[in-house]
Specification:
By secondary structure, this protein is mostly helical. It has 28 helices and 18 strands. 35% of the residues lie in helices and 6% in strands. A two-stranded antiparallel sheet has the order 1-2.
């Protein structure tokens, strides 16, 4: 190592002082005739030059020197070497020079948050680009979409550059600028002053890993209207940031950390073979669910490119090809020979863009320009590619076969579902009353504390939602679960299926309905009553029947308790795949000899419960008849007793709406569809039970006879006020 400038200055000063001293001591005496004086005293010996302390090597220099951040020969740092001014433009300098980054940070004394001027060529991303006071204080990053992500810690500096340069906002802005309202019309250039501007391809740029990681939250890809997208990919604690997964100097993936959980991982290439248990779907439809998630993405990329090229040929009328190494990537192939057309200046850029084609091509590029997308957020990329292909399929004749492709995951891992995205508009914060079952962190918190506070929104469950990280891979130990009725329910002390009961219990019960209608006249509408929604998939409450009292049980009636199925198939985990959530149909077939569990009718169910003369149909069909009859009776009662016609919508909160003109559509108010507002106690009881069976689609299997009892009683109770024909119906 060279001496530091400080040591050099000290050495020079010391030498200068010594020179002056020696000069003063050795200057010649003037000539004289006087007697010779006594000799002058001897000058003291010059002090030795101080020896500088040895300086330690710069930490991590070797790792950094071999990294892409210091690849001085790469295009990332040489693209401007042949320009006239030999400068890196201001809009590129932040990430392609140290000078530009310091300018952006304000570390050079300029205004922070922008690059004021071009930067000189010749620098890479050196130590000072990341190690300075401004970077140390940084914790937030604003993405091209305008969305700001906060509390990023040391990963913030990484995300300043690895976020891309475009998003769906820029794509939509160009479409709006050109007033391109026809999705399938080639957009012509427009005049801007003396300049003609073309409607062109928009490029996200390279290595936009942060945009991939945060998915739909920052809108790095083009997200189609009406679709919901995965948010930030939540990996396990301790390995969910840039610097926890990558060496911050060499940039290499910490493969040894991946190998701790993922068997077979030995190097970066083997990472592509990883497939989590939460990724059980055959996304690309090739029949292989064992291949790594990277291969699933590749299959969808191929499908998307096929659709893009078919569309270009059929609709835009000019073929195209894609070349990842040749800017601007999409090149004209007018003669359809599969190779880019060439002109005087080389390959001809594609110019026949339509809005629909631009969206799909943009997403295809997004999927390719983050080579680690399979780890950063593969579900988000899968959704983008699937939607792009599906959108193009709506207008091309040579459609891509998507019949076996899958877009979404099973419920627990479906990060793009309402169950996990409902709170995105609320600053991605899930209140304590919902956090236990609608975040990946809520259940562990509840098990530990017995209650929940606000939790950050999650992208579905993680391994550590159900598995105790301190005792991996054991589940959290839950001996019994308290249900909304107050009943304590268990499959047995420490039984794994007790974990399922923590969420699959509903949020209401007979107890809460009775509390809501206490002391009110049964057939008088009251503004004190609002609809009580049991919530979704209360399978545990159904299974335990009257022990749980999840449904509204009528006073004076007796009801069945827990459904006693055969041993080894009597709990959640014994009948469902705990990750896919699918029913173990093969096990059902062994006894019931049917492919579809909905066709099952137990040997003890010999009665014709719905009176249709069919005693071979599945219990689910018997339930459907009861359900249809109950809804008809509810509508009859609402109109003729409560005085206000009612309409049910299973996918729109609050589910029951006013339909005064009986046109089959909810009446509209100032704030949208009008929720039903003429509840009587009797109507609420029946409507609650109707909603209950809609929200437990497996009720026929969980406890079919119990549900039939409750529905029969609901019909009979409404029948005291309106005409309900129960002829032939049999109460189990």
């Amino acid at each position: 190592m060279q001496r530091s400038s400080k040591h050099l200055v000290i050495a020079l000063i010391t030498l200068a002082a010594l020179s002056l001293l020696i000069a003063a001591c050795t200057a010649a005496a003037p000539a004289t005739t006087e007697p010779t004086q006594a000799p002058a005293p001897t000058c003291p010996a010059a002090p030795a030059c101080p020896t500088p302390e040895p300086q330690a090597d710069v930490p991590n220099q070797e790792a950094w020197a071999a990294s892409p951040h210091n690849d001085a020969a790469s295009m990332a740092f040489t693209d401007w070497n042949e320009t006239e001014d030999k400068m890196v433009p201001a809009n590129c300098a932040k990430c392609h020079s140290t000078t530009g980054m310091l300018d952006f940070l304000g570390a050079d004394g300029s205004e922070a948050g922008k690059v004021d001027q071009p930067a000189p060529i010749g620098t890479t991303v050196t130590c000072t680009a990341c190690h300075n006071d401004a970077t140390a204080a940084m914790s937030a990053v604003t993405f091209p979409s305008g969305v700001e992500i906060t509390d990023l810690g040391s990963s913030a500096i990484c995300m300043q550059c690895h976020q891309g340069r475009s998003s769906m906002v820029q794509v939509d802005a160009q479409i709006e600028k050109f007033q391109a309202t026809d999705l399938d019309a080639v957009v012509a250039p427009i005049k801007e002053g003396d300049k003609e501007t073309a409607f062109g391809f928009i490029n996200i740029h390279y290595y936009a890993a942060a945009s991939t990681l945060y998915g739909g939250k920052v809108m790095g890809g083009y997200q189609y209207e009406g679709q919901v997208y995965d948010s930030k990919n939540d990996h396990i604690p301790g390995y969910d940031t840039c610097v926890s997964c990558h060496d911050s100097h060499s940039l290499e993936v910490k493969v040894e950390s991946c190998a701790f959980c993922h068997e077979g991982v030995t190097d970066t290439e083997s990472l592509k073979a990883i497939r989590m248990l939460s990724s059980a779907s055959d996304y690309d439809g090739d029949g292989d669910v064992e291949e790594g998630i990277a291969a699933e993405m590749q299959g969808l990329q191929e499908a998307a490119l096929t659709a893009i090229q078919s569309y270009a040929k059929e609709v835009a009328k000019v073929g195209l090809v894609y070349d990842s190494a040749t800017y601007p990537y999409w090149l004209a192939d007018a003669d359809g020979d599969g190779a880019a057309d060439t002109g005087d200046n080389g390959p001809v850029r594609y110019a026949s863009w339509t809005p629909r084609l631009l969206k799909a091509a943009y997403n295809y590029q997004v999927s390719l320009k983050d080579p680690g997308a399979y780890a950063h957020n593969p579900k988000y990329i899968i959704e983008l590619l699937y939607d792009s292909t599906a959108d193009l399929n709506t207008v091309i004749t040579e459609k891509v076969d998507m019949s076996n492709m899958v877009r979404d995951d099973a419920g627990h891992f479906r990060g793009n579902s309402e169950a996990f995205r409902h709170w995105d508009a609320d600053n991605f914060e899930v209140p304590g009353s919902c956090a236990r079952c609608h975040t990946g962190t809520g259940l562990p918190q509840f098990v530990k504390e017995g209650s929940n506070i606000t939790n950050p929104a999650s992208n579905g469950f993680t391994c550590y939602t159900c598995h105790n990280d301190a005792e991996w891979p054991s589940l959290y130990t839950i001996d019994a679960v308290t249900l909304p009725s107050g009943a304590s329910i268990t499959f047995g002390e420490g039984n794994p299926s007790n974990t399922c009961l923590e969420c699959h219990q509903g949020r209401e019960s007979k107890v809460s309905v009775d509390r809501a209608i206490k002391d009110l006249e049964p057939d008088t509408a009251s503004d004190k009553i609002r609809f009580r929604n049991v919530h979704y998939f209360a399978a545990g409450a159904t299974l335990f029947g009257t022990d749980a009292k999840g449904m509204y049980e009528y006073n004076g009636k007796e009801y069945l308790g827990a459904f006693a199925h055969v041993p080894s198939f009597a709990t959640c985990a014994e009948c469902h795949d705990v990750h896919k959530l699918t029913v173990n149909k093969e096990a059902c077939q062994g006894c019931h000899q049917v492919d579809d569990p909905a066709l099952i009718r137990g040997a003890s169910s010999t009665a014709d419960f719905d009176g249709d003369g069919d005693v071979t149909e599945g219990i689910s069909s018997e339930l459907q008849t009861y359900s249809d009859a109950l809804y008809a009776a509810i509508q009859d009662y609402a109109k003729n007793v409560a005085g206000t016609p009612i309409l049910y919508n299973p996918v729109a909160y609050p589910y029951y709406f006013v339909d005064a003109d009986e046109n089959g559509e909810a009446d509209m108010g100032e704030n949208g569809p009008m929720g039903y507002n003429a509840w009587t106690p009797r109507l609420l009881q029946a409507a609650y039970n109707y909603q209950y069976i809609q929200k437990d689609p497996g009720a026929f299997a969980h406890n079919g006879k119990y549900v039939l009892q409750v529905l029969y009683d609901s019909l009979a109770d409404l029948g005291t006020k309106v005409t309900v024909d129960l002829t032939g119906f049999v109460r189990p």
